[in-house]
Specification:
Layout (H helix, E strand, L loop, with lengths): L1 E7 L15 H4 L3 H8 L2 E5 L10 H8 L4 H4 L3 H9 L8 E10 L8 E3 L7 H15 L4 E7 L2 E6 L24 H8 L2 H14 L11 E8 L7 H5 L3 E4 L3 H9 L3 E3 L12 H12 L4 E6 L1 H8 L2 H22 L5 E6 L16 E6 L13 H6 L3 E2 L5 H9 L4
Parallel strand pairs: 1-10, 1-11, 2-13, 8-9, 8-10
Antiparallel strand pairs: 2-12, 3-4, 3-6, 3-7, 5-6, 11-12
Helix pairs in contact: 5-10, 6-8, 11-13, 12-13
Amino acid sequence: MKLLYLIADGMGDWPLDELGGKTTMEAAVTPNMDELARTGMVGLAQTVPEGMAPGSDVANMALLGFDPATYHTGRGPIEAAAQGLELGPDDLVWRLNLVTVSKLTIDGVMRDYSSGHIATEVSRPIVEQLQKKLGNETYAFYPGIQYRHLLVQKDGALTEDAGLFINPPHDITDKSIKLDLRAFSRSPQLWDLLFEARDLLADRSFNGSRANSIWPWGQGRPLNLPDFNATFGLDGAVISAVDLIKGLGFASKMSVIDVPGATGLLDTNYEGKVDAALKFLEDHDFVFVHLEGPDECGHGGSARDKVEAISRFDARVVGPLREALKDRDAAWIVTCDHFTPIAEKTHTTDPVPFILNGPGAQESGVAEFSEKSAASTGLKLDKGHELLSFALKTFGMGA
């Protein structure tokens, strides 16, 4: 039996007037997910525990079967795991965005959390310059992908910096940065670093991008997760463009598959992800395929693009995988990690719709896959990290 876990990041949404009262899921063309829903079990899962922020870090950790309330330490440490950074137990790892702000003052506004979706080949030299000019015994900059990078603060977990709350920049697009600057100001070292980086990024000789500020957030101690195979009895892999998912895979000792051309955007290499999943499943039994596109479109506030991203997920990921495995014993979990409503341009804590399709999954009697149809079945898992175990029990798989 092969188990495919397919994630359209941020796919869930709220009804929109511009879509005639439909959600982006309802407006998208999704014959493959609809068929899996009609012939499978559909319900809702609360992937974000009460009191925790609805980030992809929290929600995807839950989807992989690990309780965020127990294991989550921050966004930065997960992405550090993806890079294989050697960290001390008291190091503080920050996720570091390259952002565009109107100005770095209390009346400033977050204009773009991604600096125009800066390309990796542009951002990497910038972060390398930040390390060369500003790196010291306390702070080290590590380049990542696109706008997503890391800042490691030596022994920072022993300082008050560990308790600072800085908004994720994608949560405050076109909003004031005043409260965040007040938080930064409580750490003199971090405050100085912020403004030294601003001045350095003003140098057009090496920075031709829109980035005019760094934005450290999501800090925490190094991540430790249980071994996925030992916990669930599955020999699995994760496939994603983003370090967050790769980090969860590395931390739980899963295989992590890189796909050339996987961007995390609407133009990602869908076919490459499908091919990688099928190749891995030739000799293994579980794959977690993650698509970032719907989430990025949600943050961008474009209903049209998000509808297209969901339609492409169905046509270019779900459909080809179903066709390739139609004569094989396969089970399916299809869901999203959280909602990224167009109206909010950020994540919310709504329970997410899911499909289980395979042996033992009784039909829920829905006509399509949507937020509304999932809510109509009455099946709800209040602890989202139990979804995988619930699916394995339903399918008769795993440990």
